[in-house]
Every structure is written in C-alpha cells, then in structure tokens.
Amino acid sequence: MSDNGGAERQRNKTKLGLANIDKILDSALSAFATHGLRGTRIDQIAEAAGMSKTNLLYYFRSKDALYEAVLTRTLEVWITPLSELDATRDPSVALSAYIKRKLECSRRYPEASRLFAIEIMQGARHLKNVLATDLTETVKRKSAIVNGWVAEGKLRPVEPHHLLFMIWATTQHYADFAAQISVLTGKDLSDEAFYQETLRSVTDTILRGVLA
After folding, report:
1. Which of 189, 40, 18 is nearest to 115 (CA)?
2. How far apart are the first and last CA of the chain?
3. How far apart, in whole angstroms, are the C-alpha atoms of residue 164 and residue 212?
4. Could you report the per-residue pLDDT of 125-149, keeping only the tens digit for each?
5. What is the pLDDT of residues 41-96, one digit of tens each?
6. In the prediction, which pLDDT does 61 show?
7. Which residues pair with 117 in a beta bridge?
8. Could you tell me what percentage of the chain is helix, strand and coil, using 3-state DSSP and rounding each to the nearest 5?
9. What is the mean pLDDT of the chain?
10. What residues are paired with 155 via a beta bridge?
11. Residue 16 — very low, low, confident or very high, per pLDDT cuts 50/70/90?
12. Sequence-ordered list of residues with C-beta below 8 angstroms from that of 87, at least 6 positions apart, any chain
C-alpha cells in the first residue's frame, strides 16, 4: 500500500525548502546590493529572511556561496529573454520582444542589475565559469540567428555581439543609473508613462539602425 501521506509531507517539505531559498536569495540580494559582499554579514541576511543563521547555513554553506547563488539567479533572469530569441520570427518582432523583456528586467529587478554590474566591473571573479559556459553558448546560438537575418537581407550588416551589447547597455542603464535618470527627468521605470515612453524610444532607435 502506497504511503500517500508520506509523499504529501515530502512535497510540502520541498515547497517549504524552495520558499525558504527564495526568501534567503531576496534578502541577500538587497543586502549585497546595499553593503557589498564584504560589508554584508550572514546574520543580517538571516534576520531579514526571518530565520536563524543556523537555518540559513543549512541552505547555503557560506557567504560566498550565497553571493554566487544570487549572481547566478540574476544571470538566469538575463539569459532567459535571450534564449527566447526565435529565428522563425520576423527580426523586427523578435528584437522588439527582446528589448521589451530586457527593459522589464531592469524595471522589476533594479537591485539585481546593479549588483551584477558591480561584479562584472570587479572582474567577475564569482561568475567566470558561468559566463564562460551558459552565457557564451547562448550568445553563440543567438549570434547565428542575427547572422542569418543579415544573410537573408532582413537586417543591415551588423556584428551580432555589438548589437547585443547595445541592447544590454541601453536597457540595463535604466536600472544601473536609475538615480541619475531620476535626477535628470524626475522619473524612473516605476512610472508607467515613463516606462512606455522609454520602451518606444529605445526600440525605435535600435530598430531604425539595424532593419534593412
């Protein structure tokens, strides 16, 4: 006779564990983005997550391991929209959708964007292996799509890496330099009208430069 009660308890335990991990990662992101890796203490993160330091260390064995997990989750958020760039779609539609997803990431996860930028500027010590595998392979596949559009005459001759760098730099600017944008415009991406204006301007400017 199967132990349905035991299976249900295991599922609940798994759900609780995943919920705890999410709480820890969210609290760690806020702490690292504010105080940096060196300035953040494990007990600070545990308190913000509503758990003991011992309980936190059950999920992440060290502060460095937790920091790397936060960065890896951020990279996954960045890679997902790029992974969805589809060769079967018209480039104007595909690139517009990608720009929108990237700008939405900056809108929803500004702390993650800023922390990621700091890590990259410091040499990406904690992310080099991930960057050399997941991101590199994804960019290679999507660069082939861009080259295909160029060969079909749908895009002007454009080097795929530089197109992607341009999209990343432009969209992530609105998270990484949000304070400067707020001073200059009195707005940021949390303002719906400003977000829509930014999306139109960025999309139109980039597409006008690359569409054949």
Report:
1. 40
2. 66
3. 17
4. 888 777 777 888 899 999 999 999 9
5. 999 999 999 999 999 999 999 999 999 899 888 888 888 999 999 999 999 999 99
6. 92
7. none
8. 80, 0, 20
9. 89
10. 211
11. low
12. 145, 148, 149
Tokens matching residue 149: 């559009």
Partners of residue 211 on adjacent β-strands: 155
| Strand, helix or coil for residue 211 | strand
Cα 202 from Cα 99, distance rounded (Å): 8
**What single string gives the DSSP state of each residue in 121-166?**
HTT-TTTHHHIIIIIHHHHHHHHHHHHHHHHTTSB-S--HHHHHHH
Confidence of residue 170 (pLDDT cuts 50, 70, 90): very high
The single residue listed with the structure tokens 């260390």 is: 57
Task: Write out the two tokens for 13.
Answer: 């335990």
Q: Pick the more confident residue, 4 or 126.
A: 126
State phi, psi for 201 to the nearest 5 degrees: -65, -45
- The length of the chain is 212
In angstroms, the CA 45 to CA 196 distance is 35
Tally of CB atoms within 10 A around 10: 11
CB 146 within 8 A of CB 94: no
180: tokens are 């400067």
124: tokens are 């990406």
What angle in degrees, to the nearest 10, is found between the helix axes of 160-176 and 178-185? 70
